[in-house]
Amino acid sequence: IFFLNKSTIFCRHYSHSSILNILKTAPLGQQISVQGWIKSLRKQKELTFIEINDGSTCKNLQITLPSNLSKNITVGASISSKGLVKQSPKGQLEISAEDFTLIGECDISKGYPFAPRKQYEPEYVRENMHFRPRTRLFSSVLRIRHAATLEIHNYLDSIGYFNIHTPLITSNDCEGAGETFKIEPDSEKLLKSMAKENQPLHSAYFNKKAYLTVSGQLHLETVAQALNKVYCFAPTFRAENSKSRFHLSEFYMLELEQAFLNNLDDLLKVAEDLVKHVIKALLDRHLDDLQVCTNGKIDHLLINKPFIRISYLEAQQILSTKLNKSSLKGIGKEHELALTNYFEGVPVFVINWPENLKAFYMKQIPENNVAAFDLLASGVGEIAGGSLREDNFEKLKSRLPINNSEFDWYLDLRKFGYVPTGGFGLGFERFVQFILGIENIKDCIPFPRWPHNCKL
Ligand code: 4AD
C-alpha cells in the first residue's frame, strides 16, 4: 500500500494550460500547471490569494497557496505553479496550489514604475514604454490590435482580395506632400566607395534619392492591373511636424485597390462593409478586452445604420449654417469632429472634393472636383481616405509634380491594357483609436514614434 501511494504521488500528471483555456474548459478537480505574472496578492494567516495573468486573456486566475510557502513573492513577479481546479466560494474557477516556483522576482523598491492597484496617467505609462505591455489596459489594446488585424485579413480574403507585400523603401512620394523620410546608409566610407563621378553622395546607394514609403498605393495599382483585387497592410512613414493626439511618424495602413471600378459608391461599400465587419467580429469574440479598453463604453460601436454620405459642398454648408464653423481651407480636425457629432456618431463619408485639396492621382470629375472620399469617425475624425484613380493619360500627366520622371512607370500603366481602379487607405491606429475610444493615438501602437521621440 505504501508503494502504491508513493507512485501515485510521483506520477501525478499536470497538464499545462493557458488561463484563457482554463477559464473556458478546465473541469473541476483537474490537475493543472500554470505560469504568469502576479497581478495582486492577499496574504491571510492560512492561505495566500494570488491573482496571476499569463497574457492569454484580460482575465486573471486566482491561485490559493498555503501562506507558509508564499514568503518571497511580490506583485509583478513571474511564477509557475500547479494544483487542482476548484470553485471559489464566489463560484469562480481557481487553482488550489500545492507549490510554486519563482521564475523572476520583482522588487518594486528597485525602480519598477507601477505599484499594485494604482491607476496612472497615459503620459506616465508611455514614459515607461518597456513595461507598458504589462498594464491591464495596454495588454488588452495589444490583443485587440491582433484580433482586428486577423479580421481585416480574413475579411479581405473572404471577398477575394490578395495580400501584396509592397516595398517600404521607395523612390517616390506617393502623396506628393513632401512628408518623406530620406534613407541612406550610415557609412560614409561605403557611400564614397559606391558613388559614381559627379554623383551626390546622398544618392550613391540606389543612384537616386530613396525614402521610407508614405503609402503602398502606387505599387498596389501596378498589381491591381494583373490581380484585380489587392491590398497591403504595412507600416508607413510620415515626416510631419505634428505631435497631435492623431498623428504618428510611423503607422500601419491598410490599403486596398480594385480594378474594373468605375463608381465611387462601390468603393465606399467596401470600406463600410470592412469597418462594420471588424467591429462586429470584435464585439462577438473579444468583448472582454473591448470592455477593458473602453471602460465599458461600447455604444459608439453599435452601428446599425448605413454610414452617412455627403459631398464636400454639403459638409461645408452644414459647417457654416448649422455649426457656425465655416472654413475656406478644406475640412480641419475640428470640423471633422463637429461633423461626426452632428450626425450623432454615425461615421460620415465626405465625397467629391475640390481637386486642389487632394492628391494628383485622383480622378477628375466635373466642376474641378475629384472622385475622392474621406471617412470620418466619432472622436477621431478622418480614419480612411481614398479615390477613383485618374485613368486619362494626359490629365494625369498634367497633374504630376513638375519634371518628375519618378512617375514615368506610373504613367506607363495607363498605356497598356489599363482598366480603371480605385482604392483607399485606412489608418490602422486611428481605426483602433476610434474603436477603443482612446484619447491619444500613441496609446494604440506598441512603440509609437513622433517628433523628438524614438524611444526603445
Ligand atoms: O489620406 P492618406 O494620406 O491616403 C493615402 O496615403 C492614400 N495613398 C491611401 C490610398 O488611397 N491607398 O492616408 C490614409 C489614412 C488617413 O485617413 C489616416 O487614417 C491615416 O492614413 N494617417 C495617419 N495615421 C496616423 N498618423 C499619421 N501621421 C497619419 N497620416 C495619415
UniProtKB/TrEMBL annotation:
Q: Which PROSITE patterns match?
A: AA_TRNA_LIGASE_II
Q: Does the keyword ATP-binding apply?
A: yes
Keywords of this protein's UniProt record, alphabetized?
A: Aminoacyl-tRNA synthetase, ATP-binding, Ligase, Nucleotide-binding, Protein biosynthesis
Gene3D superfamilies in the record: Bira Bifunctional Protein, Domain 2, Nucleic acid-binding proteins
| One protein family per Pfam | tRNA_anti-codon
Q: What class of enzyme is it?
A: ligase
Keyword Aminoacyl-tRNA synthetase in annotation = yes
What positions does the domain Aminoacyl-transfer RNA synthetases class-II family profile occupy? 152-446
> Under the GO molecular function aspect, what terms does this record hold?
asparagine-tRNA ligase activity; ATP binding
- State the Gene Ontology BP annotations: translation
User: Which Enzyme Commission numbers does its entry carry?
Assistant: 6.1.1.22
* Family recorded in the similarity comment: Belongs to the class-II aminoacyl-tRNA synthetase family.
Q: What is this protein called?
A: asparagine--tRNA ligase
Q: What is the lineage of its organism?
A: Eukaryota, Metazoa, Ecdysozoa, Arthropoda, Hexapoda
